[in-house]
Amino acid sequence: MSQSHDNREKMQALQLFKDTHITKLELLSNATTIDSALHYIRSKQQAQQKKHDDIDDDSKEQLTTTTTAGKQSVF
Fold it and tell me: Could you give the CA distance from residue 70 to residue 60 in angstroms, rounded to a whole number?
């Protein structure tokens, strides 16, 4: 905007700047949107943690096996 000599370009740049800040303000002030976003993020984090825990449990089960004599051996 500050480098342009064309007034139309300056006006378009200012309009874009204004629209961007209005959108940012709406997003920051809309509690419903923020709550929805936080809920989505937390649910994804919990699902990822559960998946990670399930993988760890499967790995532990594979490491511990029972031999035919009834003794456990860990590989």
Answer: 18
